[in-house]
Structure formats: structure tokens, C-alpha cells
TrEMBL record, chains A, B:
Source species of the chain: Niveibacterium microcysteis
Record EC number: 2.7.1.39
Identification of the protein by name: Homoserine kinase
Pathway: Amino-acid biosynthesis; L-threonine biosynthesis; L-threonine from L-aspartate: step 4/5
Reaction(s) the record says it catalyses: L-homoserine + ATP = O-phospho-L-homoserine + ADP + H(+)
Record keywords, A-Z: Amino-acid biosynthesis, ATP-binding, Kinase, Nucleotide-binding, Threonine biosynthesis, Transferase
Keyword Kinase: yes
Signal peptide: none
Gene from which this protein is expressed: thrB
Annotated ranges, domain Aminoglycoside phosphotransferase: 27-253
Length: 314, 314
């Protein structure tokens, strides 16, 4: 489903001649991901992942690739881009911008344990700490301007109850005072399918193509909403507290973050409710993309509004 | 035997606070290596190796650390130095220059198979190709000037037969025309104990502290002498040819290299005969260092002289 652009073994052999990683042993498409074409590449020297970018603009790619390289260099288990013999990460293959990265061990866990949420909290703190010294900046493409645009586009399509919920939440979010919140490099999409578990250890954090410069607390909220929630949208305090305490131990929350926390959880829910509504009402043409149910995040938003003190920051 | 400088868990916790790799879970000394103190460091985020440098001058360390980072960035399985939150690789711990690197999988294989020699050939070619774009240069500390010095120091101690062998070989080596040999970044110490095997794959190449800028063919000769020899000093043609063909497939040998090959095999043998003679006659004081038998390399040198055509370059 996710190999939009095929790559032949001949093309791959030519591509590898520009690298220092040996010769092609195996090339295999990966049936996952909705934005890019991905392949497992095995050579005589190692195992890598090849990504062909189908929609991310080429000019934006250096931000992501150098971020991944920066985090890997700081000891985080993220895919490290492989430089070719000209010392470049980014090339062109089958007409697409393309990169090879290291292949990480593990598989995603859709029912994470308390212990895993604790490890994930430490991992997210590590990402934020290492990201502090990353020199490039990029605005959140799903920030306030996008939020207003997306909301305006989907509002006419919503049932009256949903419309009222959305309009009220937009007003709350416009009023959130972010000035004192610590800002840095965030992943912004750290869902369960973007973390590979190697036993109880985090083997890899992948899919950095929403990464940007924004409030660290937004990243915490996005992650917690996905990892520590129950199917009815409520939070599981055991997993949530394990996650937050582990994060706090390495990157302590500030007073301003504690105050902004309930609204930030709602902002994180709103961001994914809106993008899923966008996808639902305007599916991308010609692509066999799984359209996820927007209602899941409407319920998360409702629950965060109804139970603002369900989980507090340490 | 090889932890010359102890590190306490308290010191390690303080050190880790300067990184983004989580908190200390386990610290364990490694009983291997003769030059540095090494430790396995496990944190809440990952597994690393800590090295305290006991003898390499601090000013030389950036050459090695940036080389390892460069090769890792190019997809080679080498220990990648971890940057701290100030973006530096090199720090100070327990009064020693210190670095953390990624921990690689595998163990060394003292009786390598033909298939392993083939993989190693591809790996060495990959190291040489990736090393072409490394910007730093460093002379071989075991080059011609050292060779003459070391020979002069040990000659008086040798039995007449060995003395004659050494003096004759010095004359041959002074006469070797190196001008046309491809030069690049070489490992210069790629012995069997410096490669970790993860099954049939090279899991890691370690110990870059003899790396330098020199003839690529010297690296090929050093490696082949150790990996493809028998205990009597003769070469095993099956392993040697597998190694050389795999290397040649990715980094083709030149005509000048083919001509220099028999003398280069002797140069590589001489280099380790001399350093072992140095260690044997002047063991470093106060260190429990294993002094290896110099005679092993005298036999290799003798055999390379006696059978110059035993293994030819492809």
C-alpha cells in the first residue's frame, strides 16, 4: 500500500554505487506509512531503510534529515541518515528525493505497559534535551494559522454539536498564553506506531516529518493523548503518571507549563481531530490512503474538557 | 586488566547529566584492551561504551573521534561517538580524556571462515571508500621514521640471524616506490580482535587509535596477514582470495598496487614484528600488559619473503 514509486534492483545497484555500504543483497518494499515509499535495503555491509519522498517538499528535507542525524549523534535511537560518497544525505532515485537511513530494531506496541510509558517519557525528555542544541528551526506546519484554516474548511461539514464544540475550542486556544512555555525541537507526531520496541527498550523513534520548533509541552500532550489513553478517550492515570514522572526527572516541568497543561492537552487533541476531519472530508486523490476516524479525537477533546484535572503535571 | 582508572557510579551519574541519554542503569568495566579503560554503560535510553584514554594524547583524539563519526555517518558499523549537550564528543572523567560511543553487537572470531574473509574484504573497501571524503589527515605513527628508530633500538638485542633478516628488510622497504599507490584513511590495525561478528555479518569494527593517512594497500596487507594466515605464517589461498576479490569488487586495485603487493605484505609483517620487539625488550612499566610473542611476525615476514607469489592481487 505504501510503495507509491517502485524501485528496480538495477536502479538500486546504481544508487548504491554512490555509497560506501557495499553491494545490494536484497531490496524489499515496506507495507506501512502513508506519506512516502519505503524499502528495506540489505547490502554486503549492513541493513538500511530507503525512503522516497512523495509529498514532503525537497527544500524542507534538510531540516528533517539533519535533525535525525543530530539526535543520533547525541545517542538517541533514531534513524541516522547515511551520507553518500559526496557526503550528502539527500539524493534522487526514480525521480524522487531519496535518502537511506540506518535500520532500527523492534516493532511498535499498540497496548503499551506502564513500564513502557515510563521509558517513553525518558526518551521524549532525551529528544527534547538533545534537540536544544539543534541549530535549524522550522515552524509547526500544524500551528495556529493552519488550525484556523483547517477549522474554517471543515466547519460547514460538521453536525451542529461538533460545530459548537470546535468553535468554542478555537476561542479557548486563541486565548492560551504561550509566552512563558519552553520552546524547542519537537517530534510532534510521537504516536504508538512511530516507536519501535526492542523488548522493554525503545529500539527506535521514527517518522520525523512533522518535527518542528514549538512548545515542548505540546509534544508531551500529543504523546500522552495517544499512549496513555483508553478507548473511551479517558486517560489511564497509571500510564500517564509513569510517563510524566520519567520525563520530569530529566527535563523538569516549569510552573508556566503546569498552568497551561489542561489547555495544551486539548490543543493536542484538537490538532489531530482537525487533520483527521480534513482527511475525511477531502481525501487525497488517487492514493490508497487509510482515512482514520476523526471521532476518536473528538472524544479525546471532549474528555479533556470534561476532566481537566484527570492527570496533573508533577 | 584493562580498567586502569576506576569510575564510580556517582562520577558516572554526574557525567551523564551532561548528555541526553537518560539516567544510569548499569556501569561495568570491560576486561579487554591494553591502551584505554573501557566500560559498558547502560542508561534508561540505551547502551553505550565509555572509554577513558590512558595514553593517546588529548590533541590527537579529535582525529580519531571525528573519523569514527564520519564512517558511522556513511553507514559503516563503527562505534559512533556520542555528543554531549554542548555538542562535544570529548570530555573529561576521573581526570582522563573520555568519550562515550554506541555499543555494537557481536564478538570477535579468531578462526574466520572463507565467507567471513569475503565480508571483511567488502567492509575494508567500504572503510576506504567512505574515508576518501574525511577531511582530516594524520601521518602514520608507525611509518618510515618510526620503523628506522624502532629497528635501531632493537637491533642490538637480536640474535645474528634475526639481525640479518631485519637489516636486509629495512633496505628493501627503503627502496619501495610508493609514489603511485592510492593513499587514504586507513584503520592500520584491523586484526581479528578488532572486528565484532554478529552471526555472519560484521557487527562492528573497533579500535581506531592507529588510524592514519597512508597507502590503502598497507591496510589490505596488515588485514590479510592476520586474517588469512595459518599458524606457520603461510597464507591460506582460499581465505586470502575471497578477501581480496571482495575488496577489489568495490575498490579495484591499481597496476601500481599489484606491483607493490609482495613488498607491502612484507612491510605489514615488519611493522608488527618491530612493535612486538619493542614491547618485548622495553615493556611499559607498571602496567599489566600482555606482551605478545614477536616471533609470530618474524615467521610471517620470512614466509612472505620466501613465497612472494603465494597470493596475487586480482
Amino acid at each position: 500500500m505504501s510503495v507509491f514509486t517502485p524501485v528496480t534492483p538495477e536502479q538500486m545497484r546504481d544508487w548504491l554505487a554512490g555509497y560506501a555500504v557495499g553491494r545490494l543483497a536484497e531490496l524489499r518494499g515496506i507495507e506501512a506509512g502513508v506519506q512516502n515509499s519505503n524499502f528495506f535495503v540489505t547490502t554486503t555491509l549492513g541493513r538500511y531503510v530507503l525512503t522516497l519522498f512523495e509529498s514532503v517538499p525537497r527544500a524542507e528535507l534538510p531540516y528533517y534529515l539533519h535533525l535525525m542525524a543530530h539526535l543520533a549523534r547525541h545517542g538517541l535511537p533514531v534513524p541516522a541518515p547515511i551520507a553518500n560518497r559526496d557526503n550528502d544525505y539527500l539524493g534522487t532515485l526514480a525521480g524522487r528525493p531519496a535518502v537511506m537511513v540506518t535500520r532500527l530494531a523492534g516493532r511498535s506496541e499498540m497496548a503499551p505497559s506502564v513500564a513502557q510509558c515510563e521509558r517513553l517519557g525518558a526518551m521524549l525528555a532525551g529528544l527534547h534535551l538533545a534537540g536544544m542544541s539543534y541549530g535549524r528551526r522550522q515552524d509547526n506546519s500544524r500551528g495556529p494559522a493552519w488550525r484556523e484554516r483547517a477549522a474554517a474548511a471543515v466547519l460547514p461539514q460538521l453536525a451542529p454539536g461538533d460545530r459548537a464544540l470546535l468553535e468554542a475550542e478555537l476561542i479557548v486556544q486563541r486565548g492560551l498564553d504561550e509566552l512563558d512555555l519552553p520552546v524547542g525541537t519537537i517530534h510532534a507526531d510521537l504516536f504508538r506506531d512511530n516507536v519501535l520496541w526492542d523488548g522493554e527498550h525503545v529500539g527506535g523513534v521514527i517518522d520525523f516529518y512533522f518535527a518542528c520548533t514549538d512548545a515542548l509541552l505540546f509534544d508531551v500532550a500529543v504523546t500522552l493523548n495517544d499512549w496513555c489513553g483508553r478507548t473511551d478517550g479517558t486517560l489511564d492515570p497509571a500510564r500517564a503518571n509513569a510517563f510524566l514522572l520519567a520525563y520530569h526527572a530529566d527535563r523538569p516541568f516549569t510552573r508556566a507549563e503546569r498552568e497551561a497543561w489542561p489547555a495544551m492537552l486539548r490543543r493536542a487533541a484538537l490538532r489531530f481531530w482537525l487533520s483527521r476531519l480534513e482527511d475525511f472530508h477531502r481525501p487525497r486523490e488517487g492514493e490508497m490512503v487509510l482515512v482514520k476516524n476523526p471521532d476518536e479525537f473528538r472524544e479525546i477533546l471532549r474528555t479533556r474538557i470534561a476532566q481537566p484535572g484527570a492527570v496533573r503535571l508533577p
